[in-house]
Specification:
The structure is a single chain. The protein is mainly alpha-helical. It is about 60% helix and about 10% strand. It is built from eight helices and three strands, in the order ααααβββαααα. The chain has helices at about 1-5, 10, 20-35, 35-45, 70-80, 85, 90-115, 125-130, and strands at about 45-50, 55-60, 60-65. It starts with a helix and ends in a 7-residue tail after the last helix.
Length: about 140
């Protein structure tokens, strides 16, 4: 995403916590997964230029990016990264997240079934599937 708007996100996130990268990724993924535009609106509202120190800050005062003389361009690039038009391209992430959720539920159910085999006699659904038989459902 960073290359498309002219700001190398990873190169700018040199501090030990990577605040810029964290801020952009967290808000981007929240929007992509939840499809809620207010997430991006609130994120952009928190951004502000501090001309005295040459920084982009997250209100109330956390330094997001130090860029003396280029504050406006950097703020514009960050805002573009957090734009709905930019993030709409990443819908495959939402689909992968949904698929992962479904697979996780299936895996949990299968694990619970296998755990129960220690306590209940008979053959479980997993064993029947492995043998190529259909469940009685």
């Amino acid at each position: 995403m960073g290359r498309e708007v002219g700001i190398e996100v990873c190169a700018e996130a040199r501090d030990e916590k990577g605040i810029l990268l964290d801020f952009i990724c967290k808000n981007s993924f929240k929007f992509i997964l939840l499809n809620d535009r207010t997430i991006l609106e609130k994120a952009v509202e928190r951004l502000q230029i501090n001309k005295n120190r040459g920084e982009i800050i997250i209100k109330p005062g956390t330094t997001l990016l130090s860029c003396p003389g280029a504050e406006e361009a950097c703020l514009e690039a960050i805002t573009k990264l957090l734009s709905i038009d930019n993030l709409k391209k990443f819908t495959y992430i939402r689909e992968a997240y949904k698929q992962l959720g479904m697979e996780t539920q299936t895996l949990k159910r299968d694990i619970q079934t296998l755990i129960l085999t220690n306590f209940l006699p008979g053959e479980c659904d997993v064993c029947r599937r492995l043998k190529g038989q259909r469940s009685g459902k």
